[in-house]
Write a structure and sequence with these properties.
The protein is α+β, with helices and mostly antiparallel strands and about 325 residues long. It has 3 domains: about 90 residues, Ubiquitin-like (UB roll) (Roll), CATH 3.10.20.740; about 110 residues, Alpha-Beta Plaits (2-Layer Sandwich), CATH 3.30.70.20; about 80 residues, no CATH class. About 20% of the residues lie in helices and about 20% in strands. Strand 6 and strand 7 form a beta hairpin. It is globular and about 65 Å long. The structure holds iron/sulfur cluster (SF4) and FE2/S2 (inorganic) cluster. The site of FE2/S2 (inorganic) cluster has 13 residues, from loops.
Length: about 325
């Protein structure tokens, strides 16, 4: 099994493991305490075959190729597409020039982006927002007119804002690999590429709602949830139901006793644990439709990962105690 060192951390991994997967493994080790050395990934998705290789946000510097051939690689490589070799040494956060190069990637990804976070439904759980904040520049050098598109409804449940799309291809791969028939894809090439349904076909397939969950930006949003609430005002719960089409294991996003939206459960890398069907996602919006398991702990990168709601009853007790103490002093 090859041994790879990433930012000074060495790990042995099975043959065929990519640098990105090896970095995630290091971070997932129970005794790992440092800052995350896993590169950001906007297009790679573990559950989708052939994903990765489009966005370049996961680039890393390979300072030693392998034990056999220690020469460094001449330019940054996409860590989601490069497999490790024995003795390889990789730099991510320990290489200032790599971090500078990643800023350039982020600048390109944002070239046509409308920067409309204040009115975007994805705010608070947008990978591009997080990426821009952590790896981007505070300004743009782009002087040309940005591309714009009309918003379109692709089917009864999904809204497409093409202006926000970063062409990561994840939704195309979901349609290819999870649903029975793909009716959308990337049309045209180069700077005129766009996501579109073929000749105005609608996406109605049973598992099509999963494209919303894999979209790393606010390009594909849930029409049944749009503008109902900011995500940080909602309370995620794990819940399940007996479903004949999918596992029925979901996350419910509640406001009071209302189910505002239903999504897949995501892991710490923001990736779906199990795909869910459209019936669970769009048609079961009553608490009585579900067996609630309890608060969902959000570990991934998001404003909601503060997980305040998990300890709400304790918080209430503490406030009451504090108020009593204050009243006693007056
Ligand atoms: S719509 Fe979303 S998931 Fe699809 S290519 Fe664009 S950014 Fe990726
Ligand atoms: S995550 Fe590797 S190129 Fe997009």
């Amino acid at each position: 099994m090859p041994k790879v060192t990433i930012d000074g951390h060495t790990i042995e991994v099975p043959d065929g493991t990519t640098i990105l997967q090896a970095a995630r493994k290091i971070v997932e080790q129970p005794d790992y305490t440092g800052v995350s050395i896993a590169p950001p990934a906007m297009c790679f998705y573990t559950k989708l075959k052939t994903s990765g290789g489009y966005c370049r946000t996961c680039i890393v510097k390979v300072s030693k190729g392998s034990e056999k051939d220690p020469r460094p690689m001449p330019k940054p490589v996409a860590s989601c597409r490069t497999t490790v070799t024995d003795g390889m040494e990789v730099q991510n956060i320990t290489s200032p020039e790599l971090l500078e190069a990643r800023k350039g990637v982020v600048e390109f990804l944002l070239i046509n982006h409308p920067l409309d976070c204040p009115i975007c439904d994805q705010a608070g759980e947008c990978d591009l927002q997080n990426l821009g904040y952590e790896h981007g520049l505070a300004k743009t050098r782009y002087d040309f007119k940005r591309r714009t598109f009309d918003k379109i409804d692709i089917g009864p449940y999904i809204k497409l804002h093409m202006t926000r799309c970063i062409l990561c291809y994840r939704c195309v791969k979901v349609a290819d690999q999870i649903t029975d028939e793909r009716v959308h894809g990337v049309l045209n090439r180069g700077d005129v590429s766009e996501i579109s349904t073929y000749i105005e076909k609608v996406i109605t397939n049973d598992f099509s709602g999963n494209v919303i969950d894999v979209c790393p930006v606010g390009a594909l949003t849930d029409r049944t949830f749009r503008f109902k609430s900011r995500v940080w005002f909602t309370k995620p719960l794990d819940a399940h139901r007996a479903c004949t089409k999918c596992s029925g294991k979901v996350a419910l996003w509640m406001k009071g006793n209302d189910v505002l939206r239903v999504t897949t459960r995501k892991n710490k890398w923001g990736e779906t644990e199990e795909w869910i069907c459209n019936e669970c996602r769009f048609e079961k919006k009553e608490v009585k439709d579900w067996v609630v398991e309890g608060p969902r702990h959000i570990e991934r990168h998001s404003v909601i990962s503060a997980n305040h709601y998990e300890n709400l009853s304790q918080l209430k007790l503490d406030i009451n105690k504090q108020q009593k103490q204050l009243a006693g002093k007056q």
